[in-house]
Amino acid sequence: MPQTITDDLFYELALTLIPGVGPQLTRQLMSYGGSAKNVLLMPPGRLRRIPGVGPKAVTALTGAERATALSRAEKDLRQAEKEGVEILFYTSKRYPHRLKLIPDAPVILYYQGPADLNAPKVVALVGTRQATDYGREQTERIVRGLLPHQPLVVSGLAYGIDIIAHRAALQEGLPTVGVMATGLDRIYPPAHRKTAEKMREVGGLLTEFPFGTPPDRYNFPARNRIIAGLADGTVVVEAAIKGGALITAELALSYDRDVLAVPGNLGALTSEGCNALIKNNKAALYAEPKDLEELLNWDAALHQSGKFKPAPAYAPDDFTADEFALITVLAGADGREAQMDDLAWKAQLAIHAVAALLLGLEFRGVVRALPGKKFALV
Questions:
Q1: How far is CA 276 from the centre of its chain?
Q2: Cβ atoms 204, 213 nearer than 8 A
Q3: 197 within 8 A of 170, measured Cβ to Cβ
Q4: Which domain of life is it from (predicted)?
Q5: Which of 40, 132, 265, 348 is the most exposed place for a label (fewest CB within 10 A)?
Q6: Which residue in 90, 101, 127 sits closest to 255, CA to CA?
Q7: Contact 121, 306 (CB under 8 A)
Q8: Across the chain, what does the average pLDDT equal?
Q9: Region 207-213: what's the mean pLDDT?
Q10: 3-state secondary structure of 289
Q11: Which of 87, 58, 61 is nearest to 74 (CA)?
């Protein structure tokens, strides 16, 4: 959908383009400033009083680097508007709810495509770049098994299992999103451009990196956390004992997301990683669609929503971005209840703000307070 370019978005994008101001510092600044505009117009004296803001950050936020970032933001917004790219700051209602729950979520995303990043069901398929015929067959079989659920299929657009998963999803008519380690204007690898163009039309391309970012090797591990964070569960199809697919699986586990792995022949290098995940009880064995359906609660009795999607009674447009972030966390909580500190951490909000927001939601009959400073959806 076309994005409205606002004053807020301009300053939010500029804040993310200032060197040395990473995701954690951005959230800290936002919690004190209230908005990106307030942060970027804040005098040096006030910035110095914010915990975690050192001399270098103050200089960057008030000097030439800020001016450069503002100019770059204006240019990038024009390019985004021209190319139909949606820019999502972490406070946006359209920012992926599942991704916002991970502690190292990116503060900015660039997205191009019609697929819903907050689809009721999302699954990631990952694996080795050196995929075998067995890996190809298993990936295509898994995608066919997903058809009754019509999920969003996420992968990394890389050689091997990733591109096989994307192409199989397109073939079966399922929406698929490729998470990139480059800017949206730098398709990598170039050999996958045709598939990427098709995904732009019926699926999507997603990255945290601004226009012009090349395929630097350090970007790929960062890309993997977005793949893991976007999905209800990750399926590793083929993987060596070391590599990006295993990194994605470990990240998914650290985010308390489910992982499945397809077993392979003993001694096959491309199956060593999958077999090790299963052996070490880090992944459930995937043999048939039922394995995934049961693990992710995608059976008929629980088909109404994905693991982290809020109950249908709560619509994003009825709440502020921060209120809906808390509702999202509560909807995904075990037993639908959580402590205030845990809510603040998972929703990436200041604790004092969470207390006020919960009180407001309680007055509206959305949230109820429980013993032990716990809260739950009504």
A1: 26
A2: no
A3: no
A4: Bacteria
A5: 265
A6: 101
A7: yes
A8: 89
A9: 96
A10: helix
A11: 87
- 268: helix, strand or coil: coil
Name which of 330, 320, 378, 331 is nearest 353 in CA terms.
320
One DSSP character per residue, 94-146 reads TS-HHHHTSTT--SEEEEESSS-TT-S-EEEEE--SS--HHHHHHHHHHHHHH
User: What are 89-121's pLDDT values in tens digits?
Assistant: 998 889 999 998 898 999 999 999 999 999 999
How many residues would you count in the chain?
378
Q: Fill in the amino acid letter for 161.
A: I
Please name each of the domains of the chain with its CATH number.
1-82 (1.10.150), 122-302 (3.40.50.450), 316-377 (1.10.10.10)
* Short-list 108, 65, 100, 60, CA closest to 322: 100
Measured CA to CA, the distance from residue 360 to residue 336 in angstroms comes to: 18
Least Cα distance to 80 among 4, 7, 18 occurs for: 4
pLDDT in tens, 267-309: 899 999 999 999 999 999 999 999 999 999 887 434 444 444 4
Residue 201 makes CB contacts below 8 A (sequence gap 6+) with 113, 114
DSSP 25-61: HHHHHHHHHSSHHHHHT--HHHHHTSTT--HHHHHHH
CB of 146 within 8 A of CB of 237? no
Give the pLDDT confidence score for residue 334 in this predicted structure: 46
Closest CA to 208 of 226, 221, 192, 190: 226
What residues have CB less than 8 Å from 267, skipping those under 6 apart? none
168 contacts: CB under 8 Å, gap ≥ 6 = 139, 140, 143, 144
